[in-house]
Amino acid sequence: MRLQFHRAVVNMEIWSANSDDYSFVISFESPSGPGFRGRLGYVASWRPLDQSRGAIKILGSPFQTFAEAEDASNTMLNYLNDESNSVRLES
Fold first, then answer.
1. How far apart are CA 8 and CA 15, in angstroms?
2. What is the pTM of this model?
3. For the ranges 10-19, 43-52, 76-85, which has the lowest average pLDDT?
4. How many CB atoms lie within 10 A of CB 64?
């Protein structure tokens, strides 16, 4: 199942999506200008829904386009689900 991102903050470029177990966020950063400061591009991150811990940046961030960040998020979700299924099978 692909993540369905929606705009999370009206006046900033921040999108979010949830799966059953994980939360994903894509934000736009720039060295100057409004919003988050950082290297120019779209930063994708994730965290487990059931834990109160910080987000983990997805390898490759920042991405040049939103579509690249979205694809990386979906790839990470597939990896996390595969790992989760492997752990359940080994138990």
1. 5
2. 0.86
3. 76-85
4. 10
